[in-house]
Amino acid sequence: MNRNKKLVIILMGPPGAGKGTQGELLAEKLDLYYFETSKIIEEAFNRAEKGEFVKIEGKKYFFEKEKKLWQEGILCSPPFVTYLVTEKIKELFKMNKNLVLSGSPRTLYEAGRVMPLLEKLYGKKNIKIILIEVSSRESIFRNSHRRICELMRHPILYTKETANLKRCPLDGSKLIKRKGLDDPETIKVRLKEYKERTFPLIEYFKKRGLTVKKVNGKGSVAEVFERILKILE
Length: 233
Ligand SMILES: [Zn+2]
Known about the structure:
Blueprint: E1 8-12, H1 19-30, E2 33-36, H2 37-47, E3 53-56, E4 59-62, H3 63-72, H4 78-94, E5 99-102, H5 108-122, E6 127-133, H6 136-145, E7 147-149, E8 155-156, E9 175-176, H7 184-198, H8 201-207, E10 212-216, H9 221-232
Parallel strand pairs: 1-5, 1-6, 2-5, 6-10
Antiparallel strand pairs: 3-4, 7-8, 7-9
Helix pairs in contact: 1-9, 2-4, 4-5, 6-7
The structure holds zinc ion (ZN).
């Protein structure tokens, strides 16, 4: 791929749609930086000291309070997430990275600040938005069966091919369940949050003149990946 060509791919879809897995595959195939918002948030929580906060537009956001929301499956405060995300985007742009985002933007507030920034840095025509569609039932099933690896937190989507997997195919570390986040009750909250707060972004993108392409999320990881690549052609 031409190094001077700018590209940002935004993957949308309910929890369990396979955004993480597809994001990693796209990153590798197209030489993109895999921008995983949940990882950026988790890293920020791990780095944060007791009582630490960020002040945004005159209001204080405490890391401990945000972490509690996160653990319950509720989206963190949009200004807090937006702050972390926009800082990271600017840093990556300076490093000449093209991006694939999964998990951002997630709220209208965040989109209202992240999209203008991405458009300014990368250009509107270089932003590709892909909505991976799966049903609520499928989403709940996949999330309750999802695992991650102990070492790098690589997401392992539940499929026929991965059902009996014991170790991470990328680094060999043990596969574990995400504590809390993938409990059935938490998943229901996450799904509701998606429907009420994230799905409306599709309309927002269209109003901004951005194209949103839909992809059927059913089937194996490889099948969905093929569909995405075809759309990007
Ligand atoms: Zn791994």
